[in-house]
Amino acid sequence: MKPAPQLRIQSQLALTPQLQQAIRLLQLSSMELELELNMALESNPLLDIEEEDPAEAEDEEFAPPELTASAPVESSQDSSSDVHDATPELDDRPLDLGDDLRDYRPASGDDEEVEKQDAAHEDLRDHLLWQLNLTRLSAQDRAIATAIIEAVNEDGYLDESNEELCDSVAGLFQVSGEQVEAVRHLIQRFDPLGVASRNLAECLGVQLEGLSADTPGLELARMLVSECLELLARNDRSRICQILKVRDAELDPAIQLVRSLAPKPGAGYSSAPAEYVAPDAYAQKVNGRWQVSLSPRCQPRLSINEHYSNLIARAQRDDANYLRGQLQEARWLIKSLKTRAETVLKVAQAIVRAQANFLEFGAEAMRPLVLRDVAEEIEMHESTVSRVTTRKYLHTPRGTFEFKYFFSSGVSTVDGGAASATAIQAMLRKLIDEEKSARPLSDQALAVELNRRGISVARRTVAKYREALNIPSSNDRCRLD
Prior knowledge:
The chain is an alpha+beta fold. The chain folds into 3 domains: about 220 residues, no CATH class; about 150 residues, no CATH class; about 70 residues, Arc Repressor Mutant, subunit A (Orthogonal Bundle). Helices cover about 50% and strands about 5% of the residues.
């Protein structure tokens, strides 16, 4: 075939450096932002930051700033007016960081500082990969093991099927379900024992296999796990004795052994270390109305260094070009910070307006709220709102909450309205707290009570919410009491 030139039309999203910087700053937490600004101040001589008065800083540590409906951000335009002609003037219109950015993904280096902050914490995945690196395996088995470890959930269980795991490594190797199963059995013997199991019985069985053969009650414990786990959960000892053909007194060592095992092998690794957060915004009732203000951390007072900016006109060519570049970067950063502060404030104000009943009456009054609701109200893209709700915190009289806490789906009510999932969970917790310990409410009874109160939920929905709250079933609550 003779080669011939071809014309191809292709559209490609191009992000300006200013927009990339604004996106990165918007998704940073307040502590990460402080680190970013310290690095910028060290590398850019054209940037200055207004030092805080020590007395003011001490006051801010113990009390929120004065609450106002808006939060001014100093962009220091006046201080740089003498070099206004040195670089093109930036557009002062606010940036909507979501427009035409649906296909944008941050560069690999965008979140490097975030990773470094949590580098000291080893989660379950890290712990398993560390053991995998010490195990001699073929390249194919290592790829399968890595896929399995990546698919293990926080509790230590494997939810993906062997077929899905085969597909995940298909780009490297063609493997069978039997090969995946063989590698999975190997990982189950990693620490913690039972990790990558598919169900509780299998998980407990692996842990029992790791015990010494002379462990009291071991053989009966294996039978309990493999044949009578549901009966054991209900503490139905008489039925267990019938099935296993043993006397009741023989059950005690075996039951005690089973209950000493870890039903969630990953639990000891999945819990993140305590994280100390600084509020990005404050909500407080002033003269009968809820008002929102930004934390000073969210609006650092940056300005252009006049001394270095005045040198641009007198500097030699190379130095002048360097200073102009640093000046433009400084102006971009100041504008990006202004955009970030304005967007955080708008989202916080929209949240407070939507969830005023929560602030007044508590979690049971939380209303359904989704990203689209806030995005339409503040006339920005959903992706912009999504970035703002991540690792941003609102301080309220009821506590400090991540912005995401205020968003939840809705469940219909008998009067045609809707109740948020958060509100229903709060109602469930209250019902369970008030139940009689001798006769705990079943999921069906809880669903009936919620329906009586106007909330249309099924039993399985109640079970899902109860599990999300880490509340045991009625049978387990009865046994615990």
